[in-house]
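Predict structure. Chain length: 462.
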Amino acid sequence: MVILSLLAVAAIVGAFVLLGRPAFGAGLLTFCLFTRLPEIAESRFHVPTITVPLAIAVGVLGVSAAAKRGYAPTAVPLTLVLLGTRAAVMLLGWPAALNQAEVMPAVLEFVRDGAVIVGLVAAVCTPGALKSAVYGVITAGLLLGGIACLQFARGDYHNTYMELAKAPLVGVVGTTQGNRAAGPLGDPNFFAQSMVVVVALALERAFREPRRLLRTLALVTVGVGSITVLLTLSRGGLIALAAVLVVGVAWFRSWAAVGVMALAAIVAVPVFAPSGFFARLDELGQLRGGTTAVDDPAVLGRFSEMRSAYDMFVDHPLVGIGTNGFPAAYPEYASRLGVENDANDRNAHSLFLQQAAETGAIGLVQLGAVLALMWVAVRRTARRADPVSASIAEGLTVACFGFLTAGLFLHLAYPRLFWCLVGLCLASRQTILTHEEDPAGTAGPSDKTSSTGRWALAERIG
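Prediction complete.
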């Protein structure tokens, strides 16, 4: 009852904050999406989840506040089109689906997620809302990463910290078992993927944030988030993290950070790397000799799953085998390969291969269109928006790169996180008005002609 009372108080305070500063609503929504607090409250306390109502409320408040200053949620129609075409692709494969019972529940869940994403896009109409949304992700990552690091330091893996730090005892390499940080998602690999997104967004703010306190917060999040990825023991997550750090540093042109990060990695990896970390990396090196040189069942399983997904696509090239049909079809395809003995229900462990297997060429074309429109949106924002929004758009580009790099080894088990990135990228275009016009009349001549003035204008609006 005490916890419920605290949650009620937090809800009341949050309502006052939203009414007084609607831009904070976007940050609150992204914080909830990454921490899954509404879902945790539903499972632990049997209270209805507030994610969809919160998204609607935040979206309405954001649009209302932005309209008074001349802004409009111009990205909402495009978001609806992309969500609608994805739902249509899922339904298109229903008649020929190998497991038709899985299609409609997946579509209904996607519709609920879509409502959340539309609310997020509607809420992010101003530079302040975009910045708030990004800091919502960063704060969530710092919270989850901090708890995971604390759990590792104390070794109390039995304590899930109200389900924010799950750490299941699973196979690490061969027959060796160990605890892997899994956060609120419960799966180490997908938790690592989400933390890679956090690190990418925090990296941009660590380099570009003008306020010292927020810059320090972002820098700490980069460190904590990177350590958390190590604690997941996710090989795909580690590859994505390395890619994000290299690309991010190069993109943001902070070469002085290269030496600092290299030194930090040399110190942090031996200290924070869990037992079995280097053994798992060694298994990747064995792939140079082919699958016959690998004795790790997990690596062999990944090969079997990816090859099976490719074979499914070849057999059903147009509309695929149906949404969520891979687990049911996998045992038959795995038996053809003879790679592994245990042909239990699996997933392709590749976003692109599983999309190809389940939705066919039509699904791949739709996914490609989504990615292309995301790229166009963030690049246009980076060229034409105010400096803060333009820089955040670059951070979103690196975050998407990290997510998709991890997606080479992971399927889309949590579509809401992917579509959250889609929504933020599309919504970033709505901030361009700040640089091209000043409907609120807050900018003087110097604000529109000088770099310093543009930063000042963005900070006042934010």
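Summary: DSSP finds 20 helices and two strands in the chain.
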